[in-house]
Amino acid sequence: MSTENTPVKQEYNVTVYTENQIGLLSRIAIIFTRRKINIDSLNTSPSEIDSIHRFNIVINETEDVVRKVTRQIEKQVEVLKVYYNTNEDVIWQEMALYKVPTDTIAEKALVERLLRENGARAVVIRKDYTVFETTGHREETDNLIKALQPYGLIEFVRSARIAIIKDSEGFNCKLREFERSEPGQDVIENEFLNSRGKVFSM
Amino acid sequence: METAQQEVLTVKEPAPGIELTGSAALLEGLLIEGVDTIFGYPGGAIMPIYDALYDYMDKLKHILVRHEQGGIHAGQGYARSSGKVGVVFATSGPGATNLVTGLADAQIDSTPLVCITGQVFAHLLGTDAFQEIDVINVTSPVTKWNYQITDATEIPEVLAKAFYIARSGRPGPVLIDITKNAQLQKFNFEGYTPCRHIRSYRPKPIVRKEYVEQAAELINEAKKPFVLWGQGVILGSAEKEFKAFIEKSGIPSAWTILGAGAVPTGHPLNVGMLGMHGNYGPNVLTNECDVLIAIGMRFDDRVTGRLDKYAKQAKVIHLDIDPAEIDKNVQTTVPVWGDCKETLPLLTDLVQEKQHTEWLAKFRDFEKQEIDAVIREELFPSSEEMTMGEVIQTLNELTNGEAIIVSDVGQHQMVACRYAKLNHSRSNITSGGLGTMGFALPAAIGAKFGSPERTVVAIIGDGGIQMTIQELGTIMQSGIDIKIIVLNNQFLGMVRQWQELFNDRRYSFVDITSPDFVKVAEGYGIHGKSIAKREYLEDTLKTMLDHEGSYFLEIMVTKENNVFPMVPQGCSVSEIRLK
């Protein structure tokens, strides 16, 4: 990775494949909090494999810190594998919901255009308010808040980030390796270590 | 890593389908894991387990401690002296929180423990019930793994996992919290199968031959290679493999305090201790060697001093079982991850037979300087008052390096680690990473249970002994035979030393008074003696060692002595001070 050893902070997407175990979220969270690293976004979800969970964590840190943190996460007994990627290496999305008074939208054609331009979709339309949804990158959802603010934005919420690694072939093959009592060489290591910075050997 | 305990495991399955309580199933599991000794303290939420234990008295020895912290330190001492997993019982709430210091200590020093805590009934979880705390969250940062059981059927599998996780790979403490209903619940116990594999857990990385080859190449080209070894050599039971490696390659080798004893003190390639109060040569020459070979050690800040001035000239080879340690503090040139019991023989095969006579002589030169500046006066003082060093020196002469030395934390610990003669591995038990005062007395009790055939000498300061002095009660009741030496300088010596050196002798709350220790010991039925004069030292130590049963010996030493050499905080290892 080109950012190797440069002390520049940037957003990293940490993807963690885990067993589904109570308490693991807290074990992962304390790895960050112990080092006073703020978790910008955290999402847990099922993965492509039944029973395997997937965490998407976003932090803003230097690669050196990210690498050390991911190794500590991978050390947790219930964690199968951890990857970290810059934003360029992933496809990512966040979803946002906006509650706006219905009358302003109905009255002001400008608002309607605004929503359309931002790719917002109405989820619920009631007499008193309408809830719109957008999905996209942070800047896109942020832009719409600013735009809606003058029109009486009642409520706003944004989801955690979910991200798919561009270069990944999924976890099915790897999992079969893990299930063997003597896993093969390609899964046993942190890829970070093997390639010493060239993170992805997958 | 295969421990001795693991090898003797046999799967003795009771008749399938026998109805047992969760508590009895737990104890059955402990028996199959080869557990013989439990350190514990009962309480409300763990009563069903203690009730079951009543029927297992002939098979499981339970040592009633006086405080849960004492219990867990005893478990640590047991694990460190025997290589087996230490087992500790405690009740919920305060019983569990009292384990936290010991868990943290075991986590940072990689000590295998399985702690069982009782918990309130499952239906009371989260209600602020009597003696309820969130043990899992409280102990998450200080355990390798923890798990709460609310249903008895989970007990055999979880216990098997706990033992496997505690002792495999880089060992560590594991805690199982069992709600009272699960302890009481009867279920169909179908036997206990030790765990051998967890799909999400990889105890040791697979050895990469190419890295071993690269490491061997670096070593063979090196003119001034230097080995640093740590506790990993002991935890991996790789003492023989390690010795073979350094003897073939002829490389001078120094140890971290937890690595002490893996190679006997008198071995010609053993050049001494690393770190803040380590030996002169190993510290200075760290910044002169061309290849640094770190084996089973983690470059703790007390070992490295200032990192940006640490061995910058050297190529670094790091052998470790924990991939997270590679590049954590020191950037490695060649990472040889894996169990050093496997990697060392591979490396030994590839390295050339050599003798680095000139290079080794350099260490000996520095040693001479250190003897002149520090060691002679410490071990054979010309002053009227006794020094800690001369006590250790006299003890060495009497035990001839055969005893297990358990030290507490502070000046006496540094002196004990620097000067104690150790002929065998698993002979130096001390709180290294966490620096837990109060560790030594209970750890010595555990160490004796773990190695009953060996002499156990606890060396403790006047501060540390008062932190867990209640464990004299455990000694009294269990009738265990340990020798306790309190080196009393009437100060919290290490902090006083720093205040003298760095805070203009502003002695802020380091002046500590002590009770009449002899009377305290005698109150516990332990033979006690206090001496302040050199003329009594040897005879009294002899009496202590010959005494049947425990012995409490207080030795009054110079009040304001400093431990040197010293790498001051924020300085490089080569800036080590002799005075």
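qc> The first strand of chain B starts at residue 18 and ends at 21.
qc> done
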